[in-house]
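Can anyone check this?
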Amino acid sequence: MAKKNFLIDMDGVLVHGAKMIPGADKFIESLIQDKRKFGILTNNSKYTTRDLAHRLKQSGLEIDESRIFTSAIATANFLGQQRAGGTAFVIGEVGLAEAIHRQGFVQTSIHPDFVVLGETFSYNLDQITKGIRLINEGSRFIATNPDPSGPSESGIVPATGAMAALIEKVTGKSAFFVGKPNPLMMRTALNHFNMHSEDTYMVGDRMDTDVLAGTSAGMETILVLSGSTKFEDIDQYPYRPKHVLGSVAEIDLTKLK
């Protein structure tokens, strides 16, 4: 029987901000030694894959950028399929802007086809206001991911989902979220890494994105309690992960064929 692959969330699973979660390096080493195919799948759209690989290295994790797939890339791919060579007003960081540029899009605030919201270090009220007005004028509202918050070294921080809720409230128009738990993100990532859902574990720290995404895509899921979800939170959801562990340090590949 072929060994199963792994799609692994990043924040709360491998790192907390700039700090590696203890044992994450040993887990990655074990995947490589066991010749497992794996990819890092993150809803974080702030950084390019090269930036993320560097950040992981600074944390003590040697992971090539070819193994990293972000919601920014998935969002850019989706936009390209919707309207090749289109236009977008982007609220986000370089990871999202670069991915959209690579799809041949022009970024503009003049009657764009799309308003695209992603993660950012500091949301600018003027940009948010401009995005709201463009959406009211007819631009389609796309967001990289629905996470309302994310983990950091000092505690939770507001994320794209929280800001999207504000924009939705003002405009009365719902965002289309490309990232986890949208099965579109999972299918795009599986294709990117040449994996199949039946042969791949999804490892994450959130029930509402990682576990839901994996379950919706027909994958077996591993929830780690090193990030956003506590053990007592699990029963709030109608679905359950296949495995629940304290962190990736507890994943035993000999028991996961």
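Reply from J.R.: I decoded it. The mean pLDDT is 95.
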